[in-house]
Known about the structure:
Helix content is 49%, strand content 19%. It is of the alpha+beta class and 235 residues long. The chain folds into 2 domains: 6-130, no CATH class; 134-234, Thrombin, subunit H (Beta Barrel). Strands 2-3-4-7-6-5 form a 6-stranded antiparallel β-barrel. It is elongated. It starts with 5 loop residues before the first helix and ends with a helix. 20% of the residues are buried.
Amino acid sequence: MRNKPTYLILFPILALGIALSFPLQIYILYKIPLTDIGKIFSMLTPINIITMLSLTISAVLTILMNKWVYKVIPFALSIIFINNAIVGLYGTDYTLIQVALSFILFAVSLAPFYKKDIRAVIVNPKLRWWKTPKRYNLARPLQIQSDLLEVYSESMNVSATGIFAKIKESEMIQSLHLDEIIKLTVLTDEPISLQAKVVRKCINNTQVPDGFGLEIIKDQNYKTKYLPWFKKVSN
């Protein structure tokens, strides 16, 4: 199983580090003891505090993989631009070139947020592959039933939360819709009847056979019948 994208681990650290750098700069530049927190924060301007808050919120939203991060990041970038412009034009601690360079570097660090793969996993929780339970290649006969369809199939792999069912007839795949709830029966010695949701449809895919990805609904049958069976066959 692949790991969570490294960028989504590193960015919160970067954002929180920059937020903490504001009081640390006060400590370094003005030799105020770290124990005098009140005095350090009293020297921060309102725009400094807003910048720190926007960076902290960006970090937290990234950790939570919340799509609102795409609303906060442009705001944070704008605030940092204003903050750096004020420091460069009117301050005496840093030059305009230094603050301009720091702004450019931060802006560049945001670019991966807008890459297709990063944006996809933030916006769509179903694409977060690192949270996918381990799958086991296991062929078991299945019965799939919906209002319009009844078909016998076979599993390609199973996990603690789902099953991939192979289907040879493409028209049957087309007859089911994503997010549709179907009745799924695992035809063991003692058949296991389940409710499942269609979360993926594969047709003409070179990587996997034609079929459905099914997410099992965690009802009583799932807890009392499917999970004990799954634990037995996966050991």
